[in-house]
Design goal:
globular; mainly alpha; 0% strand; 122 residues
Length: 122
């Protein structure tokens, strides 16, 4: 069971982040439109969903788990920021990338012991 949790902690986090992003974008489109504020909220909340799911699925939260998740989230944030810069498209999605990077930098400052207690095998 531990092996399956180690294999699934990043894909599970990504899936949860995508589901949260879809829901936030759906709600934001009907309430405030598709501006930079909506994309910033999407970036923050999808990052929070990613980290919550990844750290819930992982059987042990240590520095390697933390930094692997932070590195993956930073790469996704950099992709969101660099995409509109390279293609010249609408720059509103860039704020989602900045929010993801902000969340990754913020969580990098938190000690591993503050995330959760280490879990036993279920």
């Amino acid at each position: 069971m531990k092996l399956a949790r180690w294999i699934l902690f990043l894909p599970g986090g990504l899936a949860c982040g995508l589901i949260v992003a879809f829901i936030v974008l759906l709600i934001a489109t009907y309430t405030i439109g598709e501006g930079s504020v909506a994309w910033f909220a999407l970036g923050l909340l999808s990052s929070a969903g990613f980290f919550w799911a990844a750290f819930t699925i992982a059987p042990l939260i240590n520095k390697w788990t933390k930094w692997t998740a932070l590195t993956l989230q930073s790469i996704i944030g950099i992709m969101y920021v660099s995409g509109p810069l390279l293609t010249g498209e609408d720059s509103a999605p860039m704020s989602a990338g900045f929010a993801m990077l902000l969340m990754a930098v913020t969580l990098s400052r938190v000690p591993v012991s503050q995330f959760a207690k280490n879990k036993s095998d279920v």
